From TrEMBL:
PANTHER family: UPF0173 METAL-DEPENDENT HYDROLASE MJ1163, UPF0173 METAL-DEPENDENT HYDROLASE MJ1163-RELATED
HAMAP family: UPF0173 (MF_00457)
GO MF annotations, alphabetized: hydrolase activity
Protein name: UPF0173 metal-dependent hydrolase SAMN04487945_0367
InterPro entries given in the database record: Metallo-B-lactamas, RibonucZ/Hydroxyglut_hydro, UPF0173, UPF0173_UPF0282_UlaG_hydrolase
Any matching Pfam family: Lactamase_B_3
Record-annotated Metallo-beta-lactamase domain positions: 7-198
Length: 240
């Protein structure tokens, strides 16, 4: 499994021959990528804020997954042609991967307006094997937490039953977890690798990223904190 961080909460995930793009937003200081350069098979949307769906229109011909409220919105407003609406707890098989939608605690106004909601915010767990109650040590699983506060479902459900090997967690504070709460999330998730995201994009979420590294160490977690450069790609099998 390969992961590419395009800044903010925008990630490329490759599982076998299947390419995903999560939360397309390329107007951030960490990336030089033109969204027109990318050719994903599927787009995954965590929620409807502008800094997560701003460039979904560049992928209007790409199959797009989100809550039914959100997929309906991007179909109407961005011309997205092929959508799958799903909801928390559901798993869909997409190409070589299984994608499970999990809870995120956040708000969910559409674009920059808040008169309408896009349903429940979400995160995604992307795995190369189908989730079961039988642990599969040969599987590789990535958790994109979305925009969220710290919540015990990370420990009690995501870690226990979906068993991610790596997690991307928001650390920018103000709108999501900051370094301390994000570090607790990493410890609860019991992942091998932790990637910070959703920070240093605009002033309210500017942080000293070394605070996150120190906070993870303070929990006693053995997770390897990987602070990626924008547009950097890692092979998760090498990072574990």
């Amino acid at each position: 499994m390969e992961l590419t961080w395009y800044g903010h909460s925008t990630w490329g995930v490759t599982v076998g021959e299947t390419d995903f793009l999560i939360d397309p937003f390329f107007d951030n200081p960490h990336t030089d990528t033109d969204p027109e350069e990318l050719d994903p098979d599927h787009v995954l949307l965590t929620h409807g804020h502008a800094d997560h769906i701003a460039h979904v229109g560049a992928f209007a011909d790409v199959h797009t997954v989100g809550t039914p409220e959100l997929t309906g919105y991007v179909a109407d407003e961005y011309g997205v042609e092929d959508t799958t609406g799903m909801n928390l707890g559901g798993t869909v098989e997409l190409g070589d991967a299984f994608v499970t939608m999990v809870r995120a605690d956040h708000t969910n106004g559409l674009d920059t307006g808040y008169e309408h909601s896009a349903g429940t915010p979400a995160g995604y767990v992307v795995s190369d094997t189908k989730p079961t109650q039988v642990a599969d040590e040969d599987s590789t699983t990535f958790y994109h937490a979305g925009d969220t506060s710290l919540q015990t479902e990370m420990r009690d459900v995501t870690a226990t039953f979906l068993e991610p090997d790596a997690a991307a967690v928001p650390v920018g504070d103000h709108f999501t977890m900051g370094p301390m709460q994000a570090a607790v999330a990493v410890d609860w998730l019991d992942v091998d690798v932790a990637f910070p995201m959703h920070y240093d994009t605009f002033p309210p979420i500017e942080v000293d990223i070394e605070d996150f590294e120190r906070e993870v160490a303070a929990t006693g977690s053995q997770a390897d904190v990987r602070v990626l450069d924008g547009d950097e790609t890692v092979d998760l099998s090498d990072a574990r």
